[in-house]
Amino acid sequence: MTASVPRRPSLKRRLAAGERLYGALLRLPSETLVEMAGVAGLDYVVLDCEHGPADMTALQHHLTAAAAQGVEVLVRVGTAEPALALRCLDLGAAGVIHPHVDCAEDARRAVSADHYPPLGQRGFATYSRAGRFGTVTAREHLTAGEDTLVVVMIETERACAAAGEITATRGVDAVLVGPSDLAADCGFPGRDVIDGLTEDAHRAARAAGRAVMTIVPSTAAAAREAEEAGAQLVLFNMAAVLMDTFRSLAPPRTGRRTAEPSAPAPCTPLDATPDAP
Length: 277
Description:
The chain is an alpha/beta fold and 277 residues long. The chain is built from 12 helices and 8 strands. It is globular and about 60 Å long. The relative contact order is 0.13.
């Protein structure tokens, strides 16, 4: 028999209380990995429906596995996908990560997709999984919806310039800079340029009272570096964790050239980098 897991406050409430939260980015569909993240004591997992599979049945299975272990789920949707955000939240996701938020209007649209009126325009229904299949009252469902976490991604030079307006948007809770897309948008300049733009965006987020999310590769040292830089949401890239583990286990083969372990990427977003394939 599986031991029951006590219910913790929502991610949004824990952030407001000043907690630092640790999560795992799971792009590989696997309910077992979700369960393992919860058993290990992580606070949340991120399921990627932008670059990863966006299968709603599989997503529901992942959310069910997460609930059994008391771990919250954030889902990254594609650019401007309010219908997908609605379905993810109805299935019980704790929040949504919205990519390519370039201006305050984009941020307002993200908030609108994730929240019920008057703050947003999310379609209302209590018979979903999030509403415990119609067994909660409308008031209870509305109150629970207030804990939805809205994370916006800043991924272009234009977005960096508008970071103050984006982060000040009512309903935005956290900001994640995507350095790979940002580097591509800027023509792949030096690391110092991307680091400077990233820090500017983080500074704007902190000034607006928003949490900073940072994805890190597979080392505790990288997590500490993110923490020291002010990240309140630290996110481990499980693809990097698993690949580093497999590499360490694979024996050298006679006559086969083995690749040297790659150094941690200078920028580690949720997008295509050596740390986030």
